[in-house]
C-alpha cells in the first residue's frame, strides 16, 4: 500500500517478508505503473519528489530504495554514497535514462546494488528490487553471530565493520562485504568471478576489474592498521585467498609482485575515471 508520510516512520512494524521501499522519481507515468505493481504485491512504499536527509530514510525502516539519480542533479553522487554508507542493509536500485558505462560503474562503486535504464518494465524493476532485498537479507548477521578474529583484525558483522585494537578500519559497505566473503572462506582460494557474484550479486562482465580494485583498497587499509600481518594473498589468474600470516622474510619477498599488481590495477581504475557530476544523465 502507499503509506502517508506520517505512517512510514520508526513506529511502524512491517510484516516479516514485506518489502518497504521509497521511490525517488517525478515521472508520473512511470510511478503509476510501479504503484500498481507494488500494490498487487502488497508492498509498502513511499514516493518522494527529491532527495531527503539520510536520517529520514533511516526512520522509515526501508529495505529498498529506487532512485532516478539524474533527478538529484550535481548532488546525486554524494547522496548515493552517503545513503549507502549510513544504511548498510538498504538495497539501492538506480533507475534512470541515458547513462554511460562510466556513470554506471561509478554508481555501483559508490553503493548502488543495481542500475536499470529507462524505459523499464515495472515487472523488471520489481524483480530487481526483490533480488537486491534478498541479497541484503542473506548478508544480514545471524542473531547469535559473534565477531570473527583473524590475526589482529576483529570482523563485526553486526556493525558491518572491522577493527584493529578497537579502531575501525573505516571500510565502505562493499569493502566490508568483500572482506566478509573472503574471511568466511578462510584458507580457500576464491575465484574472482565467484567473489563478484557473491558481493555484487550478479555475473561479472568480461574485463571488469572491480574485484581487483576493491581488494587493493581493502589490502591497503589492512596494511595501514595492521602492518605486521599479511591477510589477502593473490593467486594470479585465479582469485584471492584470505589467510592471516605474520609478516616474514618470505612474505616481504612477495611484496614487489603485489605492488606491481596494485599499480596495474590503479592504472585500470584511473582509466575508468570519475564521471563529473555535470555529466549525470538528464531526467526525462
Word description of this protein:
This protein is of the alpha/beta class and 284 residues long. Helix 4 (101-110) links the parallel strand 4 and strand 5 (114-117). Helix 1 (28-41) packs across helix 5, helix 6 (173-184) packs across helix 7 and helix 8 crosses helix 9 (249-272). The chain has nine helices and twelve strands. Helices cover 42% and strands 19% of the residues. 33% of the residues are buried. It folds into two domains: 5-140, Rossmann fold (3-Layer(aba) Sandwich); 148-272, Orthogonal Bundle (Arc Repressor Mutant, subunit A), CATH 1.10.10.
Helix content: 40-55%
Q: What's the Cα radius of gyration?
A: 20 Å
Shape: elongated
Low-confidence stretches: 1-16, 249-257, 265-279
**CATH T-level topology of the largest domain:** Rossmann fold
Question: CATH homologous superfamily of the largest domain?
Answer: Response regulator
Main pleated sheet:
5 strands, parallel
State the strand order across the main sheet: 2-1-3-4-5
Q: Tell me the total number of β-strands.
A: 12
The domain count comes to 2
Based on helices, strands and strand pairing, what is the structural class? Answer: alpha/beta
Strand portion? 15-25%
CATH architecture of the largest domain: 3-Layer(aba) Sandwich
CATH class of the largest domain: Alpha Beta
Topology:
Layout: E1 20-24, H1 28-41, E2 44-48, H2 54-59, E3 64-67, H3 76-86, E4 91-96, H4 101-110, E5 114-117, H5 122-139, E6 148-150, E7 153-156, E8 161-164, E9 167-168, H6 173-184, E10 189-191, H7 192-200, H8 210-225, E11 229-235, E12 239-246, H9 249-272
Parallel strand pairs: 1-2, 1-3, 3-4, 4-5
Antiparallel strand pairs: 6-7, 7-8, 8-9, 10-12, 11-12
Helix pairs in contact: 1-5, 6-7, 6-8, 8-9
Amino acid at each position: 500500500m502507499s503509506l502517508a508520510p506520517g505512517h512510514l516512520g520508526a513506529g511502524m512494524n512491517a510484516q516479516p517478508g514485506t518489502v518497504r521501499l521509497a521511490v525517488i522519481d517525478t515521472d508520473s507515468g512511470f510511478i503509476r505503473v510501479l504503484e500498481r505493481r507494488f500494490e498487487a504485491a502488497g508492498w509498502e512504499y513511499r514516493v518522494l519528489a527529491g532527495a531527503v536527509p539520510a536520517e529520514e530514510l533511516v526512520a522509515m525502516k526501508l529495505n529498498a530504495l529506487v532512485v532516478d539519480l539524474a533527478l538529484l542533479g550535481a548532488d546525486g553522487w554524494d547522496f548515493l554514497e552517503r545513503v549507502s554508507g549510513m544504511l548498510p542493509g538498504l538495497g539501492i536500485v538506480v533507475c534512470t535514462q541515458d547513462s554511460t558505462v562510466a556513470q554506471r560503474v561509478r554508481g555501483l562503486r559508490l553503493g548502488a546494488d543495481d542500475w536499470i535504464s529507462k524505459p523499464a518494465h515495472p515487472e523488471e524493476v520489481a524483480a530487481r528490487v526483490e533480488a537486491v532485498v534478498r541479497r541484503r537479507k542473506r548478508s544480514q548477521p545471524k542473531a547469535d553471530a559473534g565477531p570473527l578474529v583473524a590475526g589482529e583484525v576483529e570482523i563485526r558483522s553486526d556493525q558491518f565493520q572491522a577493527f584493529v585494537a578497537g579502531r575501525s578500519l573505516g571500510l565502505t559497505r562493499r569493502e566490508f562485504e568483500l572482506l566478509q566473503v573472503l574471511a568466511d572462506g578462510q584458507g580457500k582460494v576464491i575465484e574472482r568471478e565467484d567473489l563478484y557474484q557473491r558481493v555484487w550479486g550478479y555475473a561479472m562482465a568480461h574485463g571488469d576489474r572491480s574485484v581487483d580494485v576493491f581488494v587493493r583498497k581493502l589490502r591497503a587499509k589492512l596494511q595501514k592498521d595492521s602492518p605486521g600481518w599479511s591477510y589477502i594473498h593473490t593467486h594470479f589468474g585465479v582469485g584471492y585467498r584470505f589467510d592471516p600470516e605474520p609478516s616474514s622474510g618470505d612474505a616481504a619477498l612477495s611484496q614487489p609482485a603485489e605492488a606491481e599488481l596494485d599499480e596495474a590495477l590503479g592504472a585500470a581504475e584511473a582509466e575508468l575515471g570519475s564521471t563529473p557530476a555535470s555529466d549525470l544523465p538528464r531526467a526525462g
